[in-house]
What we know:
Radius of gyration: 19 Å
Strand content: under 5%
Distance between the termini: 11 Å
Order of helices and strands: HHHH
Number of strands: 0
Amino acid sequence: MRHTRPATLIGLALVALVGxxxxxxxxVSSGQASIVxxxxxxxxxxxxxxxxxxxxxxxxxxxxxxxxxxxxxxxxTRVLLLAKASSLAGSLFAGASGGVxxxxxxxxxxxxxxxxxxxxxxxxxxxxxxxxxxxxEHMCTVPPGDDEGGPGAQAA
Length: 156
């Protein structure tokens, strides 16, 4: 399985950014309330990112050769897929929250600090999940040349 390409993550973030901006603008122009994400959203995204990296630690130990016992290949595959999904979801959350934040800050009226701070926390949470997904994905990588039976071959 190949690493998630940066172009994919940037593309998703840009599409989500435009989508968040347009949806928020459409809501406000139709007389409805603007989107204000909960501050808990950003914090939960950061916690999920921490969990993903923690789950990748045993796979990394086997891949580096510091742990001699074998790891379940299904566990390693699940962690890798979770890491990829986390980086993609983090890109989407960061982009959408960034679009909402861009709309809030470009309006001609003053925006309440109670609306801006949770949106900033959501952007930071999305970026944290994105970074955690990328780190966990790289932690699950077997070093080159270990496919023939080296210390990292047990993680494959």
